[in-house]
Write a structure and sequence with these properties.
By secondary structure, the chain is an alpha/beta fold. It contains 18 helices and 14 strands.
Length: 438
Amino acid sequence: MKIAVIGTGYVGLVSGACFADFGHTVTCIDIDEKKITSLKEGKIPIYEPGLDELVKKNTSAGRLNFTTSYDPAISEADAVFIAVGTPSSRRGDGYADLTYVFEAAKNIAEHLKGYTVIVDKSTVPVGTANQVARIIKETNPEADFDVASNPEFLREGAAISDFMKPDRVVIGVASEKAEATMKKIYEPLYLSKTPIVITDLMSAELTKYAANAFLATKISFINEIANLCEAIGANIDDVSKGMGLDSRIGMKFLQAGPGYGGSCFPKDTKACMRTGQEYGAPLRIVETVVEVNSAQKAKMIRKIKKALGGSESGKTVAVLGLAFKPETDDMRDAPAITILSALSEKGARIKAHDPEAMEEAKKIMPDLEYVDDPYKACEGADVLVFMTEWNEYRALDLERVKSLLNAPVVVDLRNVYTVKAMKKEGFKYYSVGRVDAE
């Protein structure tokens, strides 16, 4: 089938490359000429393991193309996927900003020829598909189309695997014709017996928000339990394991830390919360999850301040990890932004390292000092803070680290190391939800 994808960000580029690998002919469209030029040259604008090879493979095969033009890609397409950004509203009210989605819908409408399914791939609030349909009808009354909802469930760092071997695919449609087109697109997954959930438009839209809100709830819940562990002298690692081995609960998203971040959870929990308020069905649990996540970051700031003897002013802080999680360069709503900005504003000097996210971090926190080696970050620092649990930080030469620091003080916000190991090495060690080796 012929597919057009609007937007070459994280979702659009991964989806386009994977659809092409299914055997479809895919054209990715973006108004950013520099990005399209780079993609044509084989340069990938985001870090995602395996994506560069997948793009190269399918562009070489002639199945994946990049352009800034809507024509003829839209007029020839059987389906057009809208995969543009839906950031939180600039008004600060928690609603998703649908400006780019609606602009894309209008541009698509102007180039439609023949029956086409317009698919919302971006994370959008309940009711967006109906609004997209209205815009297309108003722009092109003669258009023959249906709108479908096909939310993505991609984990950054494992997106290709998630697309090719998903837990499920959710498809919202309002006609049998649209359903048939979507099934044809996902036929390779049907053949591999992937669960396909066919539902109505609004249920599909809500499924995405509900799933992310639930996962965020697990994170905030375990962070509150971790805080209780610190208060009573329990060990969050053991508590998490004891909980997670219950098949009804599961181990995933039960790792204590500085709170969730990234492109999805912060935005989607707030949008889900606002949707509930708008429809008179407030989501009290989700509202609390958002509050707990904010409070957890503040608690981490206090933990670092305590490790520095009560004041961060004039102190040097070594930071390992900046991205909101490993295997990505995504800095969107990363806990590091809130925590490090607060320390810097109070007079701390921040020396930071991250294997992939430093260029993105520089755009947000230009005043930090960035170094190309984790040991350089430790030189002359008064405390070492683990902010992201990259694998390369799990086997550091701790004796060397201790010799480089002004004092053997470590704040481990991801519980990368064990209390026993750090005590043996002679560190004053602070972690999350454990009795620390102070």
